[in-house]
Design brief:
Blueprint: E1 2-7, H1 15-29, E2 33-38, H2 66-75, E3 78-84, H3 92-105, E4 114-120, H4 125-137, E5 151-153, H5 157-162, H6 164-188, H7 227-230, H8 244-254, H9 256-273
Parallel strand pairs: 1-2, 1-3, 3-4, 4-5
């Protein structure tokens, strides 16, 4: 078993790295391999929605680590995404990398446990955690939690280490990740293997192998109600008549002149009060 920990900070050994290192240390103590991946200080290209990844499962931009990380993710069992906090939001580099990875081949992340951590001097951590965690929620990933929200506070690695509650939260997160991975492995050995990615209804990630199997997206069409529709025997209506909803819709269509009168009166009132 192996967990990949993504350091979204441009500083290789900064505050975010300090928190990730504590998680990695606990994972290795629990018998789970851990590797911290550095996003680095170089610019990271954002996704441009070109669709070039649809056939290959890899991003068309190959001058950064995104495609290499996708290959590593295929063989990984769990993930931790770490971000510093800038102006109360996550690192743009990390979000750009995650957008491209999850869009190019989100299937390599599906049904694998993951967690998000944030590092800040003071505030903005919960907003940052929420933004990064959106990738997990749309990819069927079990989210690993801890005994507090996954954050540390400090303006330097030394200060982060003095955040006793934050560091304990990181250690508990590592133990919970190891426990869940072992549970999944035990279940796989007893006939409960990890599920295959589900087929969504609607637009799918551009390069997932499920795209061909997913039915074409059929946008919703507007519904034009009539009195007959309102009185039709829909499940919400009574057996021998319509419910309050049906009667209300029926009244609106039968008395459209009254409704129009109210609308004209409102418009006239607005005109009178407009200087």
């Amino acid at each position: 078993m192996k967990v990949l920990l993504f350091n979204g900070s441009p500083r290789a050994n900064g505050c975010t790295f300090t928190a990730l290192s504590e998680i990695a240390r606990v994972l290795e103590e629990e018998g789970v391999g851990a590797e911290i991946l550095q996003i680095g200080a170089r610019p990271v290209q954002d996704c441009i929605a070109c669709g070039g990844c649809a056939e290959t499962g890899r991003c068309v931009f190959s001058d950064d680590a995104v495609n290499a990380w996708l290959e590593m993710a295929e063989g990984a069992d769990g993930f931790v995404f770490g971000t510093p906090v800038y102006y109360a939001h996550p690192s743009g580099r990390l979000l750009s990398a995650m957008d491209r990875m999850f869009y190019a081949n989100g299937a390599v992340f599906a049904h694998k446990p993951a967690a998000v951590i944030a590092s800040a001097r003071r505030a903005g951590t919960t907003a940052a955690l929420d933004a990064v965690a959106k990738h997990l929620g749309i990819s069927e990933m079990p989210v690993v939690t801890s005994t507090y929200w996954n954050m540390v506070h400090g303006n330097s690695p030394a200060e982060v280490k003095k955040d006793l509650e934050g560091m304990q939260t990181m250690r508990n997160l590592g133990r919970n990740m190891a426990w869940l991975l072992k549970c999944i492995e035990a279940g796989s050995g007893r006939g409960y293997p990890r599920r295959s990615p589900s087929i969504p209804i609607g637009p799918t990630s551009s390069a997932e192998p499920l795209r061909a199997a997913a039915r074409p997206y059929d946008p919703p069409r507007p519904i034009h109600l009539t009195v007959a529709h309102a009185r039709a025997p829909y499940p919400l209506q009574k057996k021998n008549g319509v419910t309050g909803i049906g009667r209300a819709v029926s009244w609106l269509y039968e008395n459209h002149a009254i409704v129009a009168w109210f609308k004209r009166g409102y418009a006239d009132e607005v005109d009178k009060r407009t200087p």
